[in-house]
Amino acid sequence: SFFFLMSAEIGMGLTGFGVFFLFFGMMLFFDKALLAIGNILFVSGLSFVIGLERTFSFFLGGVLVGSIYGFFLLFRGFFPVAVGFIRRVPVLGSLLSLPGISAVSVTLRHFNLNKGH
Fold it and tell me: What parts of the sequence cross the membrane (predicted)?
């Protein structure tokens, strides 16, 4: 159990330094080097505290899914424009007219019209 306590203490120290470097990097107008060091220290400290398996599951499960959802919310106004453009491209337009894909493309094209955005 001594190893577990030591790794937890090392992890807390690394996480603390990571938070410090992230904060300091933001205070210096988002300095890339300090933010990169802060990210590395924070993730390594987190893996020392909760373990590698839980760290990977946290980042792949929560952060990746949240990033994809955020990307969708950020560019949802662009999807109807992109679908309208792809419909005018000769080969891709015929692919969007296929029965299964057609329903999805119509839904994406009229997504913002139904939501009132």
Answer: 6-26, 33-52, 58-79, 91-111
pTM comes to 0.52
CB under 8 A, 24+ apart: contacts of 34-41 = 41/14, 41/15, 41/17
| Confidence at residue 12, expressed as pLDDT on a 0 to 100 scale | 92
Instruction: Give the closest residue to 38 by CA, choosing from 14, 57, 56.
Output: 14
pLDDT of the residue at 104? 73
- Which residue shows structure tokens 């000769």? 90
Contacting residues for 115 by C-beta, under 8 A, at least 6 apart: none
Reading the block at residue 8, the tokens are: 């937890």
Q: Which residues of the chain fall short of a pLDDT of 50?
A: 116-117
Distance CA 117, CA 73 (A): 12
